[in-house]
TrEMBL record:
Keywords: Membrane, Transmembrane, Transmembrane helix. This is DUF5590 domain-containing protein. The chain crosses the membrane at residues 9-31. The keyword Transport does not apply. InterPro entries: Cystatin_sf (IPR046350), TseB-like_dom (IPR041401). Pfam families: TseB. Residues 44-87 form the Cell wall elongation regulator TseB-like domain.
Length: 159
C-alpha cells in the first residue's frame, strides 16, 4: 500500500482565505457598479441646480420615478430659505424651483396620506407630475400623490 502525504492544514486555510477574498472583491465591485449611476445622477443634478439657484448648502437629494423621472435637490440659500430644485432626467432644461413655504411640508403630506388610508409610511419623495409639484407618499404597497401647493390629495396608485 502506498502512503499518501497529507497536505498541511495551512495550505487549506490559505486556499479558503483566497477564495473568500475573491468573492468579497466581486461582491464589492457589483455593489459599487450598482450605486454608481445614482451617484452620477446626484452629482449632475446638484451641478445643474446650482446653475439656477445660489445654494449656500445642499441638504438632500431625491429621485422621483413617476411617468417621468425627476431629480430634486434640496438646499438653503444665503438668506436661509429652503429651496427645492426639480430637474427632469429626460429634458435637462426642464427645471422647477420652489421655496418650501410655497406649499406643504413632507410631514403635512404624510398626514394627508394617512387621512386617505395610508398606515406604514416608507418614503416621501418630491416630484413633478404634469407640470405640478407633488409629494409622493409610499405606504402600504401604494403611492399617495399629494399636491405640494394646495395640500390636496390627488390619487392613490396601487402596486
Amino acid at each position: 500500500m502506498k502512503k499518501t502525504k497529507n497536505k498541511p492544514f495551512w495550505l487549506y486555510f490559505i486556499g479558503v482565505f483566497l477564495v473568500l477574498i475573491a468573492l468579497s472583491a466581486g461582491i464589492y465591485a457589483f455593489f459599487v457598479a450598482a450605486v454608481r449611476p445614482h451617484q452620477e445622477a446626484e452629482k449632475q443634478a446638484i451641478k445643474t441646480a446650482k446653475e439656477y439657484v445660489d445654494f449656500a448648502s445642499v441638504t438632500d437629494f431625491q429621485q422621483y420615478n413617476g411617468k417621468e423621472v425627476f431629480y430634486t435637490v434640496f438646499g438653503k440659500n444665503d438668506a436661509g430659505e429652503q429651496l427645492m430644485v426639480a430637474i427632469s432626467k429626460k429634458h435637462q432644461g426642464q427645471v422647477y424651483i420652489y421655496k418650501d413655504d410655497q406649499g406643504i411640508s413632507a410631514r403635512q403630506a404624510e398626514a394627508v396620506a394617512k387621512k386617505e388610508g395610508a398606515h406604514k409610511v416608507e418614503q416621501i419623495t418630491f416630484g413633478i407630475v404634469n407640470g405640478s409639484a407633488i409629494w409622493e407618499v409610499h405606504a402600504d404597497s401604494a403611492y399617495y400623490l399629494i399636491d405640494f401647493e394646495t395640500g390636496q390629495f390627488i390619487k392613490k396608485e396601487g402596486l
